[in-house]
Design goal:
By secondary structure, the protein is of the alpha+beta class. It is built from two helices and two strands. Strands 1-2 form a two-stranded antiparallel sheet. It starts with 8 loop residues before the first strand and ends with a helix.
Length: 121
């Protein structure tokens, strides 16, 4: 805080039970009308604010990166499992198609023999 003397005394309300706040000419709150005040040094206020800030800090970068990589690994495993399942299905379809074409070939060979036999008679 530029231009503020750290030894400056601040009047901070510690409890308010009324909507009216009375101020004297020296800009400090006065006890009365449901307002209780405490006089605190500016450095105490800054210390309290920095303590509150430290308590509300986000998780550290190491924890966040570990969490991110764990979730990315889960996603990739799922994606690769789906791809592997697709390839297994494709393999089964290729085997079924191969069998069907083999049956069709055998059927065609049988028809050719039958026609050859008819032509010879």
């Amino acid at each position: 805080m530029a231009g503020v003397d750290s030894s400056e005394e601040l009047a901070i309300p510690s409890a308010v039970s009324s909507d009216k706040l009375q101020r004297s000419d020296d800009s400090q709150l006065e006890p009365g009308d449901g307002v209780a005040t405490t006089t605190r040094n500016l450095s105490e206020v800054v210390d309290d604010a920095s303590d509150a800030l430290e308590e509300t800090k986000e998780p550290d970068l190491k924890e966040l990166s570990h969490d991110m990589f764990a979730k990315a690994a889960i996603y990739l495993r799922g994606d690769l499992a789906a791809t592997a399942d697709d390839y297994k299905l494709l393999e089964k379809m290729n085997i079924a198609t191969s069998k069907k074409y083999s049956q069709m070939k055998d059927f065609g060979v049988d028809i050719h023999r039958a026609l050859s036999d008819l032509n010879e008679k």
